[in-house]
Design brief:
The protein contains twelve helices and 17 strands. By secondary structure, it is of the alpha+beta class. β7 and β8 form a beta hairpin. α3 crosses α4 and α4 runs antiparallel to α5.
Length: about 400
């Protein structure tokens, strides 16, 4: 038998009695013979082991930075709720991704980024109900599960509440930080779909919402997954096409109206898919930017254009479009110099076309200062999506 005794100094000690009964020859009980052992240290070690197990269990199911539950916790709680709540109860799952968190980490450091994530978690806690499950899946992604929702309108209103709360400027250790958020959601009924299926649907909606930029919310609709699958297939095909040189460069002549002579040819990248046929640059260029392929694609187009331009009459220039994302590459200036050196094209015959956003945000672009120093002539050319500037370069 184990029990506690209070010692003379007032402390408590755990004791275990171990003994055996002793009987007389006639079978009568004489008493017990045994010992009492102090097992205080053993009980203390057992309590520490149980506490450690609880801590390990908690750590495996919670995010260490924000203290929020993680994916494993959500999965276990969802299984428990599915057995507890009435069949047919409506639920909503919202997936939130923070916009520009990486830029904050790069600009102010990981410590400020961690403070920002804690601030986001605290604001989200104030937005949800007690019965809601708020989780962090890692990185910049948070997930909210609400049971007993009335449907799409409530999910949309909740998403807008999150967006409004999170986009208010953060004051972090004397630094003001602005942050955007994008939300994808799905509504359904308990027992109709598994948690993984619901989260996948919300993620698909989130991918659609990213096209709208920060502050956007999209709810999953049937058919969205087909669009995403098509996009994923196009990503694979585009990477293969770039590796196998399946892209082509076409040229659009620019005519001097007073003289009627061609002065410049604009290089335009074109892609003819083996199964889908011609694919518009409006479709595959954003995918290249999203995949991080815009720099190698831009270098390839620039190299091809400069190489072919060396075969033209010397009075013809070649104009090549640059994506604003290419200006985030610190090697852009070196890459252009190297390509001009490889091809032997006179730099004065190369025109780089950029959007006005590159000039407006020049101070934030790594390569802007180097490239802008080349410019000796700049003229706006109106496009469907805004002004583009043709800049003649010298090295």
């Amino acid at each position: 038998m184990e029990y506690r005794l209070r010692c003379a100094d007032g402390s408590l000690a755990w004791v275990i009695d171990i003994g055996q009964p002793r009987f007389a020859s006639d079978g009568g009980l004489l008493g017990y013979v045994g010992i009492a052992l102090d097992i205080t240290e053993r009980r203390k070690a057992e309590q520490e082991r149980l506490l450690a197990q609880k801590q390990i269990h908690h750590m495996a199911r919670h995010d260490s930075l924000t203290g929020l539950p993680n994916r494993q916790f959500l999965r276990e709680e969802f299984d428990r709720l599915s057995e507890k709540i009435a069949p047919g109860t409506k639920i909503a799952i919202l997936c939130l991704v923070l916009d520009n968190l990486k830029a904050t980490n790069d600009a102010y450091g990981r410590t400020t980024g961690d403070l920002l994530l804690r601030g986001v978690a605290e604001r989200l806690r104030k937005c949800v109900k007690h019965a809601d499950m708020l989780c962090r899946f890692g990185g910049d992604e948070f997930v909210v599960l609400r049971t007993g929702t009335t449907g799409s309108n409530e999910a949309r209103n909740l998403a807008q509440h999150f967006i409004s709360a999170l986009e208010v400027t953060y004051e972090l250790a004397g630094t003001q930080v602005d942050l955007g958020v994008i939300v994808g959601g799905v509504t359904g009924r308990v027992a109709d779909q598994s948690l993984d299926e619901l989260i996948q649907a919300a993620d698909i909606a989130l991918e659609q919402a990213k096209a709208g930029g920060r502050g956007s919310y999209v709810e999953y609709e049937p058919g969205m997954d087909a669009d995403l699958q098509t996009k994923q297939q196009m990503k694979v095909s585009l990477r293969r096409a770039l590796a196998n040189r399946e892209l082509e460069v076409h040229y659009q002549p620019l005519v001097n109206l007073p003289t009627g002579g061609v002065t410049t040819c604009e290089a335009l990248v074109r892609w003819t898919h083996a199964e889908l046929g011609p694919i518009s640059p409006a479709n595959f260029i954003p995918i290249a930017e999203e995949m991080g392929l815009i720099s190698p694609l831009g270098d390839w187009v620039l190299r091809q254009a400069c190489k072919e331009a060396t075969q033209w009459p010397s009075h013809l220039s070649v104009a090549v479009n640059l994506s604003p994302l290419q200006f985030r590459n610190a090697r852009l200036a070196c890459d252009v110099r190297e390509i001009l050196g490889e091809t032997g094209l006179d730099p004065s015959r190369l025109q780089l076309e950029v959007t006005e956003s590159v000039f407006l945000e020049g101070s934030d672009n790594k390569a802007y200062g180097k490239v802008s120093s080349w410019v000796v002539r700049s003229a706006p050319a109106r496009q469907k999506t805004g002004f583009r500037y043709r800049t003649t370069t010298v090295l």
